[in-house]
Amino acid sequence: MAGSDVKGSDRKGAAGRSAYETLLTDLEEGVLTVTLNRPEKLNAFTTPMMNDLLQLADFVDAEDEVRAVIFTGAGRGFCAGADLSSGGIPSKAMPRKG
Q1: Which of 43, 45, 57, 83 could form a disulfide with 36 if both were Cys (CB 3.0 to 4.6 A apart)?
Q2: CATH classification at residue 24
């Protein structure tokens, strides 16, 4: 899927990645806009999306330049919920608090 470059910067996308599998990012004037990018599936939530969001959260936590985060969805829907077409999100993929 499409990648992400943090605009207004020469560095690669958020968290040092040149692309996320399921997200687009845009950082301008301290505001990070994160776009869920699976419009053909109404941005339904998947394990790869969860992994991208967790990695993005680590970036936001470490990046002092980010002052606010806005979430949006590509296409006509923000997020249809969990994508059950592949059996949903396995419980072993969910992070555990310890």
Answers
A1: 43
A2: 3.30.300.220
